[in-house]
Protein backbone atom coordinates (compact mmCIF):
# COMPACT_ATOMS: atom_id res chain seq x y z
CA UNK A 1 0.00 0.00 0.00
CA UNK A 2 1.33 3.45 -0.90
CA UNK A 3 2.36 5.76 2.01
CA UNK A 4 -0.39 8.25 1.22
CA UNK A 5 -3.01 5.49 1.31
CA UNK A 6 -1.63 4.28 4.62
CA UNK A 7 -1.87 7.82 5.98
CA UNK A 8 -5.48 8.19 4.82
CA UNK A 9 -6.40 4.79 6.30
CA UNK A 10 -4.83 5.73 9.63
CA UNK A 11 -6.64 9.06 9.54
CA UNK A 12 -9.97 7.34 8.90
CA UNK A 13 -9.38 5.02 11.88
CA UNK A 14 -8.61 7.99 14.14
CA UNK A 15 -11.81 9.74 13.03
CA UNK A 16 -13.91 6.72 13.97
CA UNK A 17 -12.25 6.20 17.36
CA UNK A 18 -12.25 9.89 18.33
CA UNK A 19 -15.95 10.60 17.70
CA UNK A 20 -17.88 11.83 20.76
CA UNK A 21 -21.34 13.30 21.41
CA UNK A 22 -21.91 16.87 22.59
CA UNK A 23 -24.16 17.11 25.67
CA UNK A 24 -27.62 18.66 25.15
CA UNK A 25 -27.25 19.22 21.38
CA UNK A 26 -26.40 15.57 20.62
CA UNK A 27 -24.06 16.57 17.79
CA UNK A 28 -21.26 14.15 16.93
CA UNK A 29 -17.82 15.72 17.25
CA UNK A 30 -14.18 14.82 16.78
CA UNK A 31 -11.96 14.89 19.88
CA UNK A 32 -8.36 13.73 19.80
CA UNK A 33 -7.29 15.07 23.22
CA UNK A 34 -8.27 13.54 26.57
CA UNK A 35 -10.47 15.85 28.63
CA UNK A 36 -7.93 15.82 31.46
CA UNK A 37 -5.38 17.38 29.10
CA UNK A 38 -7.87 20.07 28.05
CA UNK A 39 -8.59 20.88 31.72
CA UNK A 40 -4.89 21.17 32.52
CA UNK A 41 -4.40 23.48 29.55
CA UNK A 42 -7.38 25.53 30.75
CA UNK A 43 -5.93 25.84 34.26
CA UNK A 44 -2.55 26.91 32.90
CA UNK A 45 -4.14 29.54 30.63
CA UNK A 46 -6.32 30.79 33.50
CA UNK A 47 -3.33 31.26 35.79
CA UNK A 48 -1.49 33.19 33.09
CA UNK A 49 -4.49 35.46 32.49
CA UNK A 50 -4.87 36.20 36.20
CA UNK A 51 -1.18 36.98 36.58
CA UNK A 52 -1.44 39.64 33.88
CA UNK A 53 -4.81 41.05 34.94
CA UNK A 54 -6.16 43.30 37.67
CA UNK A 55 -8.88 41.57 39.65
CA UNK A 56 -11.89 43.56 40.79
CA UNK A 57 -12.15 44.19 44.52
CA UNK A 58 -15.83 45.16 44.28
CA UNK A 59 -17.68 42.73 46.58
CA UNK A 60 -21.05 43.26 44.87
CA UNK A 61 -19.66 42.37 41.42
CA UNK A 62 -17.78 39.36 42.74
CA UNK A 63 -20.85 38.13 44.61
CA UNK A 64 -23.03 38.50 41.49
CA UNK A 65 -20.65 36.62 39.18
CA UNK A 66 -20.11 33.84 41.73
CA UNK A 67 -23.85 33.56 42.51
CA UNK A 68 -24.95 33.36 38.88
CA UNK A 69 -21.96 31.27 37.88
CA UNK A 70 -22.64 28.63 40.50
CA UNK A 71 -26.25 28.27 39.40
CA UNK A 72 -25.19 27.83 35.78
CA UNK A 73 -22.46 25.38 36.81
CA UNK A 74 -24.97 23.34 38.78
CA UNK A 75 -27.26 23.15 35.73
CA UNK A 76 -24.48 21.50 33.70
CA UNK A 77 -24.24 18.53 36.05
CA UNK A 78 -20.43 18.69 35.80
CA UNK A 79 -19.58 18.37 39.48
CA UNK A 80 -16.18 16.98 38.44
CA UNK A 81 -15.11 20.41 37.14
CA UNK A 82 -13.09 22.61 39.51
CA UNK A 83 -15.29 25.66 39.03
CA UNK A 84 -13.70 29.04 39.74
CA UNK A 85 -15.10 32.54 39.16
CA UNK A 86 -13.09 35.75 38.81
CA UNK A 87 -14.05 39.34 37.95
CA UNK A 88 -11.36 41.15 35.97
CA UNK A 89 -11.19 44.94 36.19
CA UNK A 90 -11.01 45.78 32.49
CA UNK A 91 -13.14 47.71 29.98
CA UNK A 92 -13.44 44.70 27.65
CA UNK A 93 -17.03 43.70 26.94
CA UNK A 94 -16.17 40.04 27.30
CA UNK A 95 -16.16 36.89 29.41
CA UNK A 96 -14.74 33.38 29.08
CA UNK A 97 -14.92 29.87 30.49
CA UNK A 98 -11.81 27.76 29.96
CA UNK A 99 -11.80 23.94 29.91
CA UNK A 100 -12.32 22.56 33.41
CA UNK A 101 -14.60 25.39 34.55
CA UNK A 102 -12.33 28.44 34.94
CA UNK A 103 -14.53 31.52 34.43
CA UNK A 104 -13.53 35.14 33.98
CA UNK A 105 -15.87 38.10 33.54
CA UNK A 106 -14.57 41.55 32.57
CA UNK A 107 -16.16 44.52 34.31
CA UNK A 108 -16.78 46.18 30.94
CA UNK A 109 -19.39 43.53 30.19
CA UNK A 110 -21.55 44.07 33.27
CA UNK A 111 -23.23 47.34 32.20
CA UNK A 112 -24.45 45.44 29.11
CA UNK A 113 -25.68 42.36 31.00
CA UNK A 114 -27.43 44.72 33.49
CA UNK A 115 -28.75 42.05 35.87
CA UNK A 116 -28.45 38.41 36.93
CA UNK A 117 -30.57 37.17 34.02
CA UNK A 118 -28.46 39.00 31.43
CA UNK A 119 -25.28 37.71 33.06
CA UNK A 120 -26.68 34.18 33.07
CA UNK A 121 -27.08 34.36 29.28
CA UNK A 122 -23.38 35.18 28.90
CA UNK A 123 -22.20 32.60 31.44
CA UNK A 124 -24.51 29.94 30.02
CA UNK A 125 -22.96 30.52 26.61
CA UNK A 126 -19.37 30.50 27.87
CA UNK A 127 -19.87 27.47 30.11
CA UNK A 128 -21.47 25.66 27.16
CA UNK A 129 -18.23 26.11 25.21
CA UNK A 130 -16.32 24.33 27.98
CA UNK A 131 -18.82 21.52 28.55
CA UNK A 132 -19.12 20.91 24.80
CA UNK A 133 -15.30 20.80 24.64
CA UNK A 134 -15.14 23.22 21.77
CA UNK A 135 -11.50 24.09 22.43
CA UNK A 136 -10.47 20.45 22.16
CA UNK A 137 -12.56 20.09 19.04
CA UNK A 138 -10.83 23.05 17.38
CA UNK A 139 -7.42 21.57 18.22
CA UNK A 140 -8.53 18.24 16.75
CA UNK A 141 -9.82 19.90 13.59
CA UNK A 142 -6.54 21.74 13.19
CA UNK A 143 -4.59 18.51 13.52
CA UNK A 144 -6.75 16.83 10.90
CA UNK A 145 -6.46 19.83 8.56
CA UNK A 146 -2.68 19.81 8.94
CA UNK A 147 -2.60 16.09 8.23
CA UNK A 148 -4.66 16.53 5.06
CA UNK A 149 -2.51 19.41 3.88
CA UNK A 150 0.65 17.41 4.56
CA UNK A 151 -0.74 14.50 2.56
CA UNK A 152 -1.65 16.90 -0.24
CA UNK A 153 1.88 18.33 -0.18
CA UNK A 154 3.34 14.85 -0.52
CA UNK A 155 0.97 14.10 -3.39
CA UNK A 156 1.92 17.34 -5.16
CA UNK A 157 5.62 16.58 -4.75
CA UNK A 158 5.07 13.19 -6.37
CA UNK A 159 3.23 14.40 -9.44
CA UNK A 160 4.80 14.48 -12.86
CA UNK A 161 5.93 17.82 -14.24
CA UNK A 162 3.07 18.08 -16.73
CA UNK A 163 0.45 17.86 -13.98
CA UNK A 164 2.29 19.64 -11.18
CA UNK A 165 0.72 23.06 -11.88
CA UNK A 166 -2.80 21.69 -11.73
CA UNK A 167 -1.95 19.76 -8.59
CA UNK A 168 -0.51 22.86 -6.94
CA UNK A 169 -3.65 24.82 -7.77
CA UNK A 170 -5.65 22.02 -6.20
CA UNK A 171 -3.49 22.21 -3.10
CA UNK A 172 -4.06 25.96 -2.80
CA UNK A 173 -7.80 25.42 -3.17
CA UNK A 174 -7.68 22.78 -0.43
CA UNK A 175 -5.78 25.15 1.88
CA UNK A 176 -8.30 27.94 1.23
CA UNK A 177 -11.20 25.57 1.75
CA UNK A 178 -9.71 24.39 5.04
CA UNK A 179 -9.52 27.98 6.28
CA UNK A 180 -13.15 28.69 5.36
CA UNK A 181 -14.10 25.36 6.90
CA UNK A 182 -12.55 26.37 10.23
CA UNK A 183 -14.54 29.62 10.16
CA UNK A 184 -17.70 27.64 9.45
CA UNK A 185 -17.02 25.30 12.38
CA UNK A 186 -16.34 28.32 14.58
CA UNK A 187 -19.75 29.80 13.78
CA UNK A 188 -21.40 26.44 14.37
CA UNK A 189 -19.76 26.18 17.77
CA UNK A 190 -20.93 29.67 18.70
CA UNK A 191 -24.51 28.82 17.71
CA UNK A 192 -24.28 25.53 19.58
CA UNK A 193 -23.05 27.36 22.69
CA UNK A 194 -26.03 29.72 22.40
CA UNK A 195 -28.39 26.73 22.16
CA UNK A 196 -26.85 24.81 25.07
CA UNK A 197 -26.42 27.96 27.16
CA UNK A 198 -30.11 28.77 26.74
CA UNK A 199 -30.95 25.40 28.28
CA UNK A 200 -28.51 25.92 31.16
CA UNK A 201 -29.84 29.37 32.05
CA UNK A 202 -33.43 28.08 31.98
CA UNK A 203 -32.53 25.14 34.23
CA UNK A 204 -30.76 27.57 36.55
CA UNK A 205 -33.98 29.55 36.94
CA UNK A 206 -33.37 32.45 34.55
CA UNK A 207 -35.93 33.23 31.85
CA UNK A 208 -34.41 32.36 28.45
CA UNK A 209 -35.82 35.51 26.83
CA UNK A 210 -33.07 37.38 28.69
CA UNK A 211 -30.61 35.92 26.15
CA UNK A 212 -32.46 37.55 23.25
CA UNK A 213 -32.60 40.87 25.12
CA UNK A 214 -28.88 40.64 25.86
CA UNK A 215 -27.97 40.27 22.19
CA UNK A 216 -30.16 43.22 21.29
CA UNK A 217 -28.17 45.30 23.78
CA UNK A 218 -24.88 43.84 22.50
CA UNK A 219 -25.81 45.01 19.01
CA UNK A 220 -26.60 48.46 20.36
CA UNK A 221 -23.33 48.55 22.30
CA UNK A 222 -21.37 47.93 19.09
CA UNK A 223 -22.54 51.36 17.92
CA UNK A 224 -23.36 50.16 14.41
CA UNK A 225 -19.70 49.62 13.54
CA UNK A 226 -19.04 47.80 10.27
CA UNK A 227 -18.55 44.08 10.78
CA UNK A 228 -16.77 41.36 8.87
CA UNK A 229 -19.17 39.45 6.56
CA UNK A 230 -20.60 36.50 8.45
CA UNK A 231 -19.13 33.84 6.13
CA UNK A 232 -15.64 35.25 6.86
CA UNK A 233 -16.19 35.46 10.60
CA UNK A 234 -15.85 32.98 13.45
CA UNK A 235 -19.10 34.28 14.98
CA UNK A 236 -22.65 34.55 13.66
CA UNK A 237 -23.94 38.08 13.17
CA UNK A 238 -26.00 39.54 16.05
CA UNK A 239 -29.06 39.42 13.78
CA UNK A 240 -28.53 35.68 13.16
CA UNK A 241 -28.02 35.01 16.85
CA UNK A 242 -31.17 36.86 17.86
CA UNK A 243 -33.22 35.02 15.23
CA UNK A 244 -31.85 31.62 16.32
CA UNK A 245 -32.37 32.32 20.01
CA UNK A 246 -35.95 33.42 19.42
CA UNK A 247 -36.56 30.11 17.67
CA UNK A 248 -35.06 28.13 20.56
CA UNK A 249 -36.82 29.94 23.43
CA UNK A 250 -40.01 27.77 23.33
CA UNK A 251 -37.92 24.61 23.78
CA UNK A 252 -35.81 26.19 26.55
CA UNK A 253 -38.97 27.24 28.41
CA UNK A 254 -39.74 23.56 29.00
CA UNK A 255 -36.77 23.52 31.40
CA UNK A 256 -37.47 26.87 33.04
CA UNK A 257 -38.19 26.75 36.76
CA UNK A 258 -38.18 30.21 38.38
CA UNK A 259 -36.46 30.46 41.76
Please outline the helices and strands.
Layout: H1 3-17, E1 19-21, E2 28-30, H2 35-52, H3 59-76, E3 84-88, E4 95-98, E5 102-106, H4 110-113, H5 116-131, H6 134-157, H7 161-203, H8 209-221, H9 238-253
Parallel strand pairs: 3-5
Antiparallel strand pairs: 1-2, 4-5
Helix pairs in contact: 1-6, 3-5, 5-7, 5-8, 6-7, 7-9, 8-9
Write up this protein:
A hairpin with a 6-residue loop joins strand 1 and strand 2. The chain contains 9 helices and 5 strands; from the N terminus they run αββααβββαααααα. The longest helix has 43 residues, at 161-203. 31% of the residues are buried. It has one domain (3-253). Mean pLDDT is 81; it is low at 6-10, 166-184 and 228-232. The chain is globular and about 40 Å long. The strands form 2 sheets. The chain has a 3-stranded mixed β-sheet. Strands 1-2 form a two-stranded antiparallel ribbon. It is mainly alpha-helical and 259 residues long.
Key descriptive features of the protein:
259 residues; mainly alpha; globular
Radius of gyration, Cα only, in angstroms?
21 Å
Write the H/E string, N to C: HEEHHEEEHHHHHH
What is the number of strand segments?
Answer: 5
The major pleated sheet works out as:
3 strands, mixed
- The share of residues in helices is 55-70%
State the separation between the terminal residues, measured CA to CA. 63 Å
General shape: globular
